[in-house]
Amino acid sequence: MKVLGISASPRDNSNSDMLLRQVLSGASSAGAEAEYLRLCKFNISPCSACGACYGTGECPIQDDFQVVLPKILAADRLIFATPIFFMSVCAQAKILIDRCQCLWASKYILNRPVVKPRQTQRLAMVIAVGGKKGGKGFDCIRLMMKYYLDTVDMGYFANLFVSNADEAGKIAENTNAMQEAVRLGKELALAAGPVPEKPIDVELIG
Ligand SMILES: Cc1cc2nc3c(=O)[nH]c(=O)nc-3n(C[C@H](O)[C@H](O)[C@H](O)COP(=O)(O)O)c2cc1C
User: Fold this and answer.
1) Who lines ligand 1 at CB under 6 A?
2) pTM score, two decimals?
3) Distances 126 to 6, 51, 75, 154, 179 between C-alpha atoms, Å
């Protein structure tokens, strides 16, 4: 069981990153092989909408996306962690998501499978942290991730959303959020059977 954690926050001592590491430790404690990837360390350009992938299923831009994509395709479990920036994912996350348009083209235009058929369903979890108090801060993430995870052929298993956590590292004081992250990591690694109709939704206030 390969678990890939993608951390999209550009800042040090990031709240979403801390939760991601907790989720990965939960998954490892359940026997999974965990890999952690900090997106801002990779050089990934935005999608240029050149359209080449509509004919080939592949992105012609030669940068670190070509390193990250095989990791996404090889993972049995994906954990995508992002801060909320202007009611959405941060730019680093959005660039990666857009570059996966080549998978969308492959799947929906060229009718090719994204990954080889497997015995078990690939599953994903989303972590998002915002500084704002409550509100509809996570609505955009839910919708975007629904379509993104479908594109990368991952069942949408769970969300861990924390609002009212603005200061870097503040999440570490939130024992409940830190423990929930470990629990969800274990649950994600051990999950069997069909994808839940709706993702497990854990929304906490920092
Ligand atoms: C450019 C920018 C935009 C932001 N926009 C929002 C927002 O729309 N909603 C919100 O709840 N927090 C917003 N925040 C606050 C961050 O989501 C918050 O600081 C969060 O803890 C960052 O997570 P991280 O530590 O994992 O990077 C914004 C912060 C920045 C720098």
Assistant:
1) 9, 11, 14-17, 83-87, 129-132, 137, 165-166, 168
2) 0.98
3) 10, 28, 15, 11, 16
